[in-house]
């Protein structure tokens, strides 16, 4: 295909640079094409969707329909974690525990730190990530 040929509506050509940290398309863009990396960087990290119904099922696990409230009740953040906590979820937690932990921490504008099983949780790691609390696997 001719890279200089314009893109005719209603089609849209989105050019994606293959480098994981590329800041933009490397080379000339056809008239009407969109540089994906440049477009994404111009957008803020915000989602303005409708508020979810807390009573509606959020996910299904083990044959049960779980709501956001169910997940909220399944995790208690560590005492002293504070507002906007940075919480480490201990390695070995299952998916449901990880989702519940993420929901609990993110509702406090916090950060959830995940560590793969087999990676030692050292004082250096905890200090480097500025961990303010830890959650167990259950």
Describe the fold and architecture.
The protein has 138 residues and is an alpha/beta fold. It has a domain at 78-135. 23% of the residues lie in helices and 17% in strands. The chain is built from four helices and seven strands; from the N terminus they run E-E-H-E-E-H-E-H-E-H-E. The strands form three sheets. The chain has a three-stranded parallel β-sheet with strand order 6-5-7, with helices on one face. The longest helix has 12 residues, at 95-106.
List keywords for this structure.
138 residues, alpha/beta, three-stranded parallel β-sheet, two-stranded parallel ribbon
* Overall helicity: 10-25%
Shape: elongated
Number of DSSP strand runs: 7
Largest sheet: 3 strands, parallel
Rounded to the nearest angstrom, the distance between the terminal CA atoms is 55 Å
Summarize the structure.
With 138 residues, this protein is an alpha/beta fold. The chain is built from 4 helices and 7 strands.
